[in-house]
Amino acid sequence: MSGISIRTVTAYSALMQLALGVITGVAQVPDLRPEISNVTIRTNETVGEADVVEGCAAATTKRTLIGFDHYAWNDGPSDLTLGDPGCPDCDTTPPPICSNPLFECSIAGGHGHAHLKNFSSYTVTKKGSPTVILRGHKEGFCLVDSFCNPGIVPGSSGTCNNLTAGCADVYNNGLGCQYVDITGLSPGEYTLHVELNPLRTITELSYDNNEVTSDFKICKQQGGLSTLQVEIGLPTAQYPTKRPITISGVIEYGSPAVLKSFNPIKDGFTINLSLDNYTVFSNASLPSGAVGSGCFPTDGWTKLGKGQWSYRNDFEYDPSCSYQATQGLHVAQLRKVGKKLFFTLRGRADVSSVPARPSAGEASFSWAGSSTDVTNESCGVFLLAKRCHRSVALTVCK
């Protein structure tokens, strides 16, 4: 016997050998390669209880997660074929035991089926350091041909025990345990490591392509919404399908330099606002220009004093004034003091886009300043001031 798919080093490996079978010819083995994309850091996340049971998260609420799409490719000349997982109904808690020791039942969100144990490893290190400081627990996979190269016929997708040569098993960002829980990780530079076959129990054509990495950064909190108040009124006879809305609060930036050159008369001001799962405003823009630049003599920005401005637009959201818009922002008051920007914005939103009693929200503000002194990137946790194509934005999640 030669070219088997599993090394017979331990009793565990011997069991895997029996499950995978014997392949004749040294070259006739699989070759596993990971590929990751859509790497995102999500804050204040809620995960399912099953994720906690599997050890993927320490608790169900208020988690900070780094998630990603994961493609597990088989680039080798041979299929990776496993034995019958021997798992009963996996969609129960606690998870039952599979008769095949190579497999386990996964009950994490979006799964509920057999997984091959120790197929992958998700770890986090300090950038440039080999020491693992955090470990994910999405270690098992239900191997199916989710995506294949042109001309490759995918194999069976119902038994979690095959990965055809030229195909990939895909786990999308957002699935249960498809992340590393980085809650409480200190600001700094880190590296995410994704490795297939980390124990080298599966014999492959090469192990040199088994790991991919992605650097990420946790920034110090550079700004925050220390106050946010949203007042939602009732529709009126004039606008029966709209709700008047007032948004007020204080944004505190990490440095006065962020606001140093801010001038809405030349920069304008844009807001995005969502409440619960409703998008209230999407790139609602108060265009630049002093009073008299709009369709009415009173339209535009007025400088009230040092670091203070007001805005009015009788045509409301539509800056071109081609028609009278009934949704958007039409009154604003802004005042900057040191690192803080105080704001009050008034407008109207569709009844269907505003919850009656919102419990949570997310807002972002931006302006088109060209000389702002900001060096932070959009890199991670909580509230970040960032440079993006000559604009500065602060994203706020409450």
Features:
398 residues, 5-stranded antiparallel β-sheet, disordered C terminus, 24 strands, elongated, Immunoglobulin-like, mainly beta, 3 helices, single chain, 6-stranded antiparallel β-sheet, disordered N terminus
> What's the total number of strands?
24
CATH architecture of the largest domain: Sandwich
Rounded to the nearest angstrom, the distance between the terminal CA atoms is 61 Å
- The helix fraction, in percent, is under 10%
- Count of DSSP-assigned helices: 3
Q: What structural class is derived from the secondary structure elements?
A: mainly beta
Radius of gyration: 27 Å
Reading the helices and strands in chain order gives HEHEEEEEEEEEEEEEEHEEEEEEEEE
CATH class of the largest domain: Mainly Beta
Fourth CATH level, the homologous superfamily of the largest domain: Immunoglobulins
Task: Give the total of domains.
Answer: 2
Secondary structure layout:
Layout: H1 11-20, E1 32-45, H2 49-53, E2 63-74, E3 80-81, E4 103-106, E5 113-116, E6 120-126, E7 132-135, E8 147-148, E9 162-163, E10 167-171, E11 179-181, E12 188-196, E13 211-218, E14 223-232, E15 242-253, H3 264-267, E16 269-275, E17 278-286, E18 300-305, E19 308-312, E20 328-337, E21 340-350, E22 361-367, E23 385-388, E24 391-397
Antiparallel strand pairs: 1-2, 2-10, 2-11, 3-9, 4-5, 6-7, 6-12, 8-10, 12-13, 14-15, 15-21, 16-17, 16-22, 18-19, 19-20, 20-21, 22-24, 23-24
